[in-house]
Design brief:
Length: about 70
């Protein structure tokens, strides 16, 4: 997920996506420790997407960059 997609979503949609990304990241990390078939680039993109969402939620809650929190 890129930042433009994330900015167009509401807070509840972002939290839902965040939960899904965290679950998928956990599953990939678990599989990578037991098997060698996990895709390392997917782990990297998931970690970055999680960071983007967390940053955006924090920006909205603190009022940084003039953005208003979305309901």
């Amino acid at each position: 997920m890129n930042i433009e997609e994330a900015r167009s979503k509401t807070d509840s949609e972002l939290r839902f996506d965040l939960g899904n990304f965290k679950k998928e990241l956990f599953d990939l990390r678990f599989r990578s420790s037991t098997e060698s078939s996990a895709n390392p680039s997917r782990i990297r993109t998931l970690r970055r997407s999680i960071a983007r969402i967390n940053t955006l939620l924090h920006e909205r809650s603190s009022g940084v960059r003039g953005q208003q929190p979305r309901a």
